[in-house]
Write a structure and sequence with these properties.
Elements lengths: L2 E2 L5 H5 L5 E6 L4 H16 L5 E6 L4 H6 L7 E6 L2 E7 L4 H11 L1
Parallel strand pairs: 1-3, 2-3
Antiparallel strand pairs: 2-4, 4-5
Length: 104
Amino acid sequence: MKKEITNQNYDELVNSGQPVVIDFWATWCGPCRKVSPVIDELADEYDGRVIIGGCNVDENDELTAKFGIRNIPTIIFIKNGEIVDKVVGAAPKSTFQEKIEGLL
């Protein structure tokens, strides 16, 4: 299940020991609406192995600034607390799957 990632729970999620995938999005973003169902599917497929969630840039300015998010959607891939990959813009599900598999 996709998690809501916020300024408040980010540290806890990243320190869980599991890889983390964060989709930075906003309600007014057209490409974000295209990517969101794919992120939902991936969250279900990788449940228990990878934490996959979304971060609303309008509500979580600390995280948005921390990662220097300038364009959305931006999807970042974190392993051992470090960003290991990033996708900016909409992409096919296979692109995200490939990057998630690289985290495992």
